[in-house]
Structures are given as structure tokens and as C-alpha cells.
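Table S5 (text form). Sequence records supplied for joint modeling of the three-component complex.
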Amino acid sequence: MTAADLVIVLLGVVAVGAGVLVVATRQLVHAALWLVVSFGALAGSYLVLTAEFVAWVQVLIYVGAVVVLLLFGIMLTRAPIGRSEDLDSGNRIVALVVAVATAGVLVTTLVRGFRSAYVPIKDRVGSGSSHTLGGSLFQTWVLPFEALSVLLLAALIGAIVLSRTDIGGAGPEPEEEEPEPRRRPAAPRGTVARRLGTARRRATPDDEDTIVLSRVDEEI
Amino acid sequence: MTPVYMAAGDIPTPHIEYGRLAPVLIVLGAACVGVLVEALAPRAQRYGLQVLVSVVGLVAAFAWTIALGIGDQPHHVAAMGAVGVDGPTLFIQGTILVLALMSMLLIAERRHEDSPFTAQASTVPGSPEERESLVAGLVQTEIYPLVLFAVGGMLIFPAANDLLTMFVALEVMSLPLYLLCGLARRRRLLSQEAAVKYFLLGAFSSAFFLYGTAMLYGFAGSVRLSEIAAAISKQGGDEPLLLAGVALLSVGLLFKMGAAPFQAWKPDVYQGAPTALTALMASCTLVAAVGGVLRVFYVGLETLRWDWRPMMWAVAILTMLVGAIVAITQTDVKRMLAYSSIAHGGFLLTGVIATNKAGLSSTLFYLAAYGFTTVGAFAVITMVRDAGGEAGHLSRWAGLGKRQPLVAGTFAFFLLAFAGIPLTSGFTGKFAVFQAAMAGGAMPLVIVGVVSSAIAAFFYVRVIVLMFFSEPLADGPTVSFSPATATAVAVGAFVTLVLGVIPAPALHLAQSAANQLFVR
Amino acid sequence: MSETHVLAEGATLNSFGHDPWWIIGLKALVVFVFLLLTVLITVWAERRIIGRMQLRPGPNRAGPFGILQALFDGIKGALKEDIVPRGVDKVVFFLAPILAAAPAMVSFSVIPWGGVVSIGGHKTPLQLADLPVAVLLPLAMASIGVYGFVLAGWSSMSPYALLGGLRSSAQVISYEIAMGLSFVAVFLFSGTLSTSEIVAAQAHGTAFKVAGMTLHTPSWYAVLLLPSFIIYIFTMMGESGRIPFDLPEGEGELVAGYHTEYSSLKFMMFYLAEYVNMTTLSALCTTLFLGGYRAPWPITWFWSGANSGWWPVLWFLIKIWMFTFFFIWLRAALPRVRYDQLMKLGWKVLIPVSLGWILFVSVVRALRNEHHDVGPIMIVAAIIVVLLLIASFLWERVSASEAQPEEAEAAAEQDPMAGGFPVPPLDAPHYHGVGNGRAPNSAEATRA
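The corresponding C-alpha cell record, covering 1188 residues in total, follows.
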């Protein structure tokens, strides 16, 4: 067993262990943090496999953006410090059985499929470089790549559709003249704090929380 | 200038056959134009411009598809092998485009200035903001580019020649649909629930698809369907990686089709989504999904057919029976049609299982026939309205035939087509599919198919009886006519009739499209 | 100065990976000590320079010119009582300062501070490590650093800290996109993501012809890719979280932002992180845009040895300190922006401009790769850009003059003494930067 083998095994243990903790921990924010550890260990595995570009992009995108936004969402809605007792599902035994069974099947399949396959890393140095990756992205996979950008555009439009509240903002068109005397102004775009302020001003104390959340959610 | 820089220039430009990809590119281009319209045009003109852009895009793409089909013998791979342009694909793409155009008539409908989509998606259902946005007459015109994005994905999906392209196409087609499902104008909570359900289950099935892809890649060293087929014939078919990969991939594909046991999303989503969108999903998405299934099983896994056939037999039988039997207990029209759509998915699978030219051509014909009928049927549903929107509950339809014989008659005609009564397209389609399955040696499947058709016919006829032979309700639903919907209904009914009475030209078209099978 | 001579001095990717362990250890130690010392000096310099700019002496008692002030402050800060508020999530509370400080230091490892030198008989580049994708490392580290802020804000059980943490994470993520985009043009021109090779690529300009004349493009990307450089400067300010973009810790609104509840050594860690970050960002900018450790051109004219031996370290330090001074100068000169202005600048100006610029650069690059003459195209493009700028400026003027009466009207509606108390308007059009939003009058505000 070479040093690289050892490192990749250790990283695998970390990734899997952190993954288990994501599901097992009773603290919401800690779950997100264990997810970060898991992603980080995965990035480490990529590094060992000499796929440097993929490794750093993994850190940049998954660790740096996706989970941060996840945390962002948790913190803006609810992020209690300490244990939350309601995080457990009544189906957890069933879920455990299903998960273990799935993992068993997949691991068996992979082990049986790849037991004899062995690719020495030394021969493949450079196969994970940005040059190779770019070459294959913009040669063989150019159509899926472009289709993915279309997908992202569609997702972007979708997010706007779901979140924008100010499309009814006072505009020059006559149809948008004030329909009733008590019409409220469209929510202004602004900081979270300003949102809090806006919502508070517009709401009675009872429904304050819900309105605050619905306003703040849109920022994400 | 450093030597490093010179080295960067050695990635050659990929070769893209723009002409052969044009239908897809036109639709996606029109979607992008729609986004620009949304950004730049004044609000009052957006609706008109968006409808114009969408219709022109779809028509142009359809025209180009026809030109491709009659030009040369289409049998090529394009875009560095990512997509195949061949007879069956063009037939499927053409069908999707026509059906999308028909659905677009429903989507663009503004009955009394009342669009089927919500005025402002971001408002909380029941909130004062929602009321304000309704009163202000706002419209969410972003739906048109989103529909076009989805249609673009549907066009790529059956054409995809490798699993990666297929996955991306799957997402391009699904993501806008997840969103659009939640944008109904009435019963918004139901609609949002449908969207969340569809999204969660869809994401789950995408994961299955990806996992299967990864395993097949592990087996064959490539995600290209032709190379997977080559690897299967070289290495034999009893590798656990291959079998697990095929199983997971099939789960992902069958979910999109709504085949049992992955059908759970279909009734909820079809019921909750705006009916215009349900029409799109029931026709175009089903056509695209079956197209993808056909390509995967005819090209990639064809050499493995003795292994997957038993599984597909089971799925097809289960799908037909579940669709037909559960539909009997339904009381909501849209839910009932959803189960009917599940059952039809089963009939389509019998054509897939045949794995021969007859199976392919009959499946293609069935897809087209079913697509037109289903869009027409959902169009009728949008016309029958109560005070609170569409009259969903079946009891509201009682006696409709006495008050509105034309509308009820058309609906009855569509139902008969679903049931597969002679002189409708449904009969021809089923006949062709069962014939192919019989030729392929799947006699038990055919028997189950005929039995479940008979079960299904029971509840279709029950609705017809309800409409024509019970007393009309005093406060029964009204029928609201409008040119666009009426056109969709008329086209649907006309095609259903023509394909039932003189099916030869369409059958011939499907046969010639299927003549060379899929390109590898 | 012969070209071969200069190239022999510059490090490339091949120069790495041959060092004995003690040189690597030495380099790591030097980087660490250098960063700590730089922080001390920067803190002192900042207070002195700002003092000068505000016509007061600044700290001048401890040591000559008060240079020990920062050290004493540091010792005092570390020895203070370490307060841990009740109810905090202790593990995360401890982890956050480390997560903020460590990545900032790690980033520095890919910065080249000199060419190849000889240490103890070993030829070695003056750079801790280099990767084929080295520039991604500072970006990745910056995004890990965000965790420090956001977790500090969350774990300290204080709404001020939470809002500060959220603000900082949103700010850093937004500006990181524009920052990454500003690098793309550099990558396109240098053809590499390795820092040492980017420095090497800036050694000489490329020759191109305009109207029959052979011209040399400037070798520094700061000149050649000026828009990228400017965008980087903006994003650098945003990433560092300093004035004018120090919203996360805007003391007027949020006390001290995410580190409100921190004290003693943990607080010092945040302090350290901020200043190390500043140094790292300056060093990154030097490397990518200002030719790295290479001597500036007037010097290389009359002194051919300027790029050999240990001299490059001097040029590198001078360039870094120019940026540090720039940071301090801005802090003395500028007020803080509002948070929505910050976000608007990031998302609506920097990112679109970056994208447009990348498009332009890659078109030029592609044309040149296919051996087209880009000179006339560039001139036409420049003219179009200038015309567009003028048009947009005129458009702004016209629309502003149209909007003015409306604003005046809205201002007239407001009752400054609504309800018997002096109230500032809660929502006025100029808060949004445009004149089309309708200002609610204060009667409506009091009703709600």
C-alpha cells in the first residue's frame, strides 16, 4: 500500500464518517458543517487522484458557495443553538434499513466491478489538469455543456419568478394604477435589516414573524 | 508571447452540425429571446410579444424538422456524437413540437383576461398581496420562456446519443416543469404542493439516473450508448455493474414516463398543475420520455434484451393494471386522466419490449395519436368551469351532455379514443402496438393489455353515462368558449378521428421513420 | 538585458517539487513570520498614516515613531479576559476565529515573492508552492474564510453578530464571483493558472501591428487588461471587508458585526485575519496584474541585474506596500456605502461588466489565434464603447431631469412631524437610487 492509497483511504473514512454525522447529528447547523467536512474530504480525494482543478473547484463551489448558502437559509429561518428534538423522523428505522441495504448493494457492485481494475496514478498525471478538462468539455461534451448553461438560465428565471415581489411595483402603465385606497407600496429591494424594518412597519405584531421570513427568504 | 500561451491554443474547435440541430437551437433561441423580451419590453406589450415569439419559434422549429425529414435520409450523429438525428428522433421531435404548439394555445389562453397561471407567483396564497396582484391584472409572462426551455429539453432528450447529454436534457426539461406546476391561478396551495412533490420525486429519480449512468460508465468506459452496446456484446451481460446500472437507469427513465411502481407523482401533479400545463406534460413530456426510453433500450441495451425483458414485462403489466384499476375509484377528472395516462404508458411499454421495427413504428404512431387526444381532452377540461375555476369533481359533470351536447360529445369522443374503441386513433394505436408485441412473442402482455383496456373502458364509459344519462345539476358548471381553446379541442378531435378512420398515411410515416431504427 | 537571462531567473512549474524538506519548512516559517510582522507593521502604519491624513500625530510614544504600539496592543489584547457569553455553541464559537485566520495565511503560499535563488547550494524558487491551478487556491481559501465570519455570527447568540455574519458572507460570496471573473482575462492572456507562470508571462509584451506600425503591448496585465484590474481593485475592497465596504462590522448599525461578542485572543484572531487578508489580496494583485516580483520597466532599462538574485523580493515588497497604502488611504478618504449599494455594485455593475469584458477579450484572443489583424477591430470597439458611454451618460441626464419633479412632489408629501414626533421618511425614492418608486406618505406609515 502506497502513501497515496493510505491517504485516500483516510479521506474516504473522513468523508463517510462526516456524511453519517450529517444525518445523525441533532444540531441543524452542525449538520451543515459536517457536510462541509465531507465535501472537503472529497476534494482531498480528488487532489490525491491528481485532479487538481476539480478539487479546487469542489472547494470553491460546494464548500464555498453551496453550503454557505445552505447555512444562510438555515440562519434566516431557524438556527437554534443546541439540540433540536424535532429533527428526528418517525421513519428513522426504516430509513436506516433502506440506506444500509442500498449502500450494501452499491458497495458490493462497485467492489465486484472494480476489484481487478487498477490504474496507477503516476501514468495519469495531467489527466485531471485544466487543459485536459477544458479540451474534453469543449470538444466531446460541448453540447451538454451548452445545454447546462440553458438549464442554469432557466433556473435563474424560475428563481426570479418565485421570488420577485416588486413586479407589480408602481409603473407607468395605467393598468397598474392604485386599485384600492389601501394599497401598500411594493416591497423595496434592500438589505436584510431594511427588510426587517419594512416588514415590521407594514405588519401587525401577530403576523410579523411570518412576513419577515417570507420577505427575507427572497433575498437568498 | 510565452510558449505556454501557444500550448493553450491547441484545443481544436468542435464540429457542430448547426443545420441538423436547428430545431433544438431555434426553440432554445426563442426562449432566450423571450428572456430578453421580459427584460426589455414594456410590461403592457410583453404578453403579446411572448406569445408571438413562442409560436413563431415552435412553428419554425417544426418546419425545420419536416425539412430535415424529407431532405435526405436522416441517419447521422451530430454535435461531436452527442445527439443522433435519425428518422424516429425526427418523428418524435415533430410530434413534440406540434403538441407543444397545441398546448401553447391553452397556456396563452386569456379567458376574460384570466390566464391559467398565477398573477404573481411570489405572493402567499390567500394574502392581501395576492388579491392586489389579481386586481392589478398582473401576468407572469416569464412562463413562456420557461415553457420553451422545457420543450427544448424535450427535443434533446430523445435525441441524446449518450447518457450525459440525456441527463442534462432531462434536467432542462424537468426543471421548468417543476416550477410551472406551482403556478396555477386557482387552488394555489394544491398547485404548490404538486410542484414540491414533483420536484422532490424528480430530483430523486434524477439521482437514480445518474447513479445508473456512473455504473454503466464503470462497465463500458464510456457513456455513449453505442459504446455501451459494443461493450455488452464484447464482455457479455452478466456483470453486476452492468445489471445494477441498467436497473438504476431504468428507474430514472420509467419515473419520467410515470410507469408503475414509479407512478405516484403523476395523479397529484396532473391534478395540481394548471390544466394547460398538465396538457403539455401529459403529451409532450410523455412523448419525450418514451422517446428516451426507446433510444436507450433500442440502441444502448439492445444486445442485453434477454436480461431486461422480464423486468420490463413486469413493469408493463403492473403499469397497465395499476393505471386501469385505480382509475376506477377516482372522482376528479384530472386525476382520472392521470391514471389513464399511466395505463397508456403501460401500453407504450409493450411496444418498447417488442424491440423490432414494428414495435418502434407502432410506438411512434401510438405516441402521436395519444398526444393529440390527451391535449384535446385537457382542453375540454379547461372549458368546463365553475365559479371557483375548473369543475374538477366528476359529479359536477353530471348531465353536461344535455346542456352542452357539443362539448360533452367531444369529450366523450376523446374518452372513447382513450378506451380504444374502433374509428378512433386509440384503436389503431393499440392495435398496432399489440400486433408488434405479438410478433415479438409477448402474447401474455397482449392479453393483459386487452384486459386492462376493457377495465379502463369501464370508467370511461361511466363518465360518458354520467354526462349524458343523468339529470343536469341546477347550479352546474358553465362552458366558456374561447377561440384558442376551441382550436385546440378541434385539432385534437380532428386528428383523433382522422387517425382512427384513415390511419394509413400516418402509419406509413411512422414506418418509414422507423425504417432504419435509431442511429448508433 | 538579454531575454534568455531573464527567463532563466523566472520560476516555472517545473522548478517546484525538488526542494529538500528543510527548505520547504524554512519557506513556510518565513511566510508565517512575514505575515505576522506585516500585520504588526500594517496596524502601526495604518494608525500613523490615518493620523497624518487627519492632521494628528497618531501613536508616537512606544518605541521610535511609536513602532512598538501595535506589538503592545497585541500583547494587551491577548492577555485580556476571554469572555464566552452564556448559551453560545462553544465548539463553533472557538472554531470560527481559526476558520477566519488560517485560510488567509494559506493563500499566501502560492504567491511568488522572487525568482529562483540559491539557498545552501540548492536552487529553489522563492515561493512555497505552486500548482497548475494555483490561482484557484486563494479563491477557495477566501470562500472557506467566509465560514469564520458566518459561524462567528451564528454561534455568539446575538442578533447584531448574526446580521453581521450574514452580511459578510453575502458580501464575500457576491464579490468573489466578480473577482473570479476578473481573473479570467488574465488566464486567457497568460494561458495558465499557475502563479509563477503568470508572472513569467508578464515579462514581455506581445508585438502587434496597428496601421503598419509594430507596437508592443505593455507587459503588465494591469495596463493590458485595465478593466479587469479595476474590477479586481473593487472586489479586493469588497473581499477584505474594509471601508468603504466594511458593512459586516458597520459599527453604527451592528456594533462590531460578527465579532461583537468576541474578546481577547479570539478577537485578535479576527483582527489578524483582516490584516493578513489585506496583505494576501495585495500580493495576489501584484502577482496577477503588476508583473509580480519583476522590476518595473524604468529600472530594467538601466539595470539588467534587477531581476536576478534576491532583488525581486524588494520589488515585490514595494508593490505590496503600495497596495497596503492604498487600502489605508481609502479608509481615511471614503465613507461607508449602504448595503444595497454594495450589492447593487457587485451584482449589477461588476459582474455584468466583467462578463462583457471577458467576451471582448476572448473574441480578440480568438481572432488573434486565427491570425486576423485585431488592430482595426480594437479601434472600432473602442469607439463603440466610448459612444455607448456617452449615450448612457446622456440618457441618465435626460431621465434624471424627467424624474426630478416627481421627487419634489414626493418630498412635499412627507409630514416631518407626523404623530407629534419628528420622523424621518421611512421610504423615499432616493433610497433606491431611482425616482420611480412611490414614496408612502407618513400618514400611511403611522397607520401600519
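Note: Chain B touches chain A through 63 residues (CB under 8 Å).
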